[in-house]
Design goal:
It is a single chain. It is built from four helices and no strands. With about 110 residues, the chain is mostly helical. α2 runs antiparallel to α3.
Length: about 110
């Protein structure tokens, strides 16, 4: 049996609620461009971690755990692509050249 400290869970849930309120405030304030994409990415990451976990807790199995990890990891990778694209698109050419050198360097 797992020993659960409910005060820690409440603290984490409270921090997530405060962070969600801040994200909603940023969107309401009219954030656009990179701040908007980052806000949507972070809000989506909270959703994509909560929904699959609720399915896992409904019927825990190793298959459901693998699906939770795969869906969360998939969102983290695919959802980050627009953020990286906008950051490199709007950056100075020197940063883009360095990014390309890092990405193209052999292992």
């Amino acid at each position: 049996m797992i020993n659960v400290n409910y005060y820690e869970l409440w603290a984490i849930a409270s921090l997530m609620a405060v962070f969600s309120i801040y994200l909603i405030y940023l969107v309401k304030r009219g954030a656009d461009g990179i701040p908007l994409i980052i806000t949507l990415y972070l809000a989506g990451s909270m959703i994509f971690m909560f929904i699959p976990l609720s399915f896992y807790f409904a019927s825990p199995s190793i298959y459901n755990l693998a699906m939770v990890l795969a869906s969360s990891s998939g969102y983290m990778i695919i959802g980050l692509l627009p953020v990286v694209y906008l950051v490199t698109k709007n950056s100075k050419p020197r940063l883009r050249e360095k990014w390309f050198v890092i990405a193209a360097s052999p292992l």
